[in-house]
């Protein structure tokens, strides 16, 4: 099976015309749909057999229902009929996500932090999308009940291979960004299961390694990335990319990580 993995789109229909701070990064960056279009064109050209798209969070950036609806409509139009699975990120408002992306009636703040999990079963493997995001909490959090959900879904999977996806990275000090606090129960479930790989986002930097003895992959953002400077500031530049995987009987047999950058600086910010 051929799989495409993208992350951290940070889309909005319209960004604030800001000249300072994080908002200025969003305002100055190239429209993420343009960057996404470039990546999809290249990925489909090189790998016409792609059957699944995984998006590991931050679909929008403090977005409204309209933003999610526009993004989903654009993706549906440009994905050539392939299956799409998502997990929210810490910049996603879940009530707005449910309204605009899922077409559910918005319930306002009552649904703001309710986790969104998804279980998809394909011919060759299952994909478990486990929500690690709470809006406004950059480091993320697996809220109460998430370990129970994962345990129940892994029981349903049984001996079938599966992929696990979540937004926040699970390795300490990756690119200097703290990992999400992962309950020991979740880590043990993954370690002892037939999960064959873990896919995440959040850092905007691609990475390949291992977590709980499982192959572990981070995808570049589809927007920008930050570099810590010696003076304590963060330099934001435009960079984007995607991961590509080939599986056989549920195992990752080949992977590619593609990064594109024109070295265009967006902002240099000191966060207090």
Overview of the molecule:
There is one protein chain. The chain is α/β, with parallel strands linked by helices. 24% of the residues lie in helices and 31% in strands. It has six helices and twelve strands. Strands 1, 2, 3, 10, 11 and 12 form a six-stranded mixed sheet that branches. A six-stranded mixed sheet has the order 4-5-6-7-9-8, covered by helices on one side. A hairpin with a 2-residue loop joins strand 8 and strand 9. The protein is globular and about 55 Å long.
Low-confidence stretches: none
Strand content: 25-35%
How many DSSP-defined strands?
12
The main β sheet shows up as: 6 strands, mixed
Distance N terminus to C terminus?
Answer: 45 Å
Question: In brief, what are we looking at here?
Answer:
This protein is α/β, with parallel strands linked by helices and 272 residues long. It has helices at 21-28, 32-46, 65-78, 94-100, 146-157, 184-192; strands at 2-6, 50-56, 83-87, 118-121, 126-129, 162-165, 195-200, 207-211, 214-218, 225-228, 234-248, 251-269. The longest helix has 15 residues, at 32-46.
Give the topology, please.
Blueprint lengths: L1 E5 L14 H8 L3 H15 L3 E7 L8 H14 L4 E5 L6 H7 L17 E4 L4 E4 L16 H12 L4 E4 L18 H9 L2 E6 L6 E5 L2 E5 L6 E4 L5 E15 L2 E19 L3
Parallel strand pairs: 1-2, 2-3, 5-6, 6-7, 7-9
Antiparallel strand pairs: 1-11, 4-5, 8-9, 10-11, 11-12
Helix pairs in contact: 3-4
């Amino acid at each position: 099976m051929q799989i495409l993995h993208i992350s951290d789109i940070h889309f909005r229909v319209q960004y604030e015309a800001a000249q300072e701070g994080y908002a200025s990064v969003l305002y100055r960056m190239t429209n993420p749909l343009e960057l996404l279009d470039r990546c999809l064109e290249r990925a489909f050209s090189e790998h016409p057999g792609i059957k699944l798209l995984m998006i590991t969070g931050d679909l929008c950036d403090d977005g409204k229902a309209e933003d999610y609806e526009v993004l989903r409509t654009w993706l549906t139009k440009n994905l050539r009929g392939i299956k799409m699975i998502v997990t929210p990120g810490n910049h996603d408002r879940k009530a707005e996500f449910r309204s605009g992306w899922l077409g559910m009636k918005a319930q306002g703040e009552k649904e703001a932090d309710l986790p969104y999990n998804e279980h998809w079963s394909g011919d060759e493997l299952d994909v478990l999308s486990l929500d690690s995001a709470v809006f406004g909490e950059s480091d993320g959090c697996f809220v109460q009940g998430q370990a129970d959900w994962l345990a129940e879904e892994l029981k349903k999977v049984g001996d079938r291979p599966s992929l696990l996806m979540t937004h926040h990275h699970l390795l300490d000090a990756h690119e200097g960004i703290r990992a999400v606090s992962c309950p020991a129960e979740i880590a043990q479930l993954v370690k002892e299961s037939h999960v064959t790989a873990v896919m995440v986002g959040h850092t905007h930097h691609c990475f390949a390694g291992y977590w709980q003895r499982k192959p572990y992959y981070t995808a570049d953002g589809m927007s920008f990335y930050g570099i810590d400077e010696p003076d304590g500031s963060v330099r934001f530049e435009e960079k984007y990319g995607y991961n590509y995987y080939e599986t056989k009987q549920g195992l990752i047999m080949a992977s590619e990580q593609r990064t594109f950058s024109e070295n265009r600086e967006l902002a240099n910010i000191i966060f207090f």
